[in-house]
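Changelog-adjacent note: as of this version, every example in the card shows the full chain rather than a window. The one below runs 326 residues end to end.
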Amino acid sequence: MDTFVDSSWYFLRFCDPWASDAPFRQDAVEAWMPVDQYIGGAEHAVLHLMYARFFTKALADLGVAPAGLREPFTRLFTQGMIRLDGSKMSKSKGNLVAPEEIIDTLGADTLRLAHLAVKPPEEDVDWEDVGLEGCSRFLRRLWRMAVPGSEVVGTRRDGDETEADLAVRRARHRLVADITTDYERWAYNVAVARCMAYLNDLSAYVQSDAGPHGDVIDDALDTLLQLLAPAVPHLAAELWSQRHGGAHVHETSWPVADPALLVEETVTLVVQVNGKVRDRLEVAADADEATCVAAAMSSAKVQAQLGDTEPRKVIARAPKLVNLVV
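Full-length structure tokens:
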């Protein structure tokens, strides 16, 4: 009774947890059900999902639940399992990794981030592939850069913004757009990789000869903390609190990308000779095929490969690719 029976209708009780004279009121269930997202492992989903669907239909037929409620869950997502030494982790087998030591040494956020970063959540994972140390280094770098008075950021500029500053702003808005999509499509590992790459870009930016613009680096770091808050809630909350006088990052609105800053002015044109990459060129984002082919042919690296030979075939996918076949 305390396992399959109770777990097969708890979501209905959650709709009206304070009802004292009935399991739940029908109007409350009508307002909240069905559940938007069901998440469970393959084994769990087969058993629990079957029982939950049966209970919902039976309670509706008995008049306890609304008659129109035929399915309790709108969407199903089945996550992968974590294996240790080739076997599924299991309490019965005793092959578990206790989190306490990891939390005490590297922190709960490192453990969370490593789980998200290793693979897409629907795939099985070998514990040996979980990159705890790499995630810990990333979070330490983020802390050193974002903490108030950071020596990493160094001297901050003000006044007019340069092209380098604008590039960081554009990258920030692309990051917001990309990670918002990543979270919505469950691509957490991709989102983590984007955040790590963005922190690398910020490191290069603050170490440039001109140094960072104060407003630009503050906006960049604040946005990065907001985007990481679902993944590393403790570190993000602490840094945000220190940067914003005790305010809470989890009470802020999700950042929104400016469509005007998502438009790329230039793109990287990959130039190949017989399928091998020989050069990368910056061209206008709206460059046509003729412009891209001309740019490829004028490349010194490409000319060194071609010599006096004329390409017998040109494959162009403007503005991203030109392949010269000789």
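Structural remarks: The chain has a mean pLDDT of 92.
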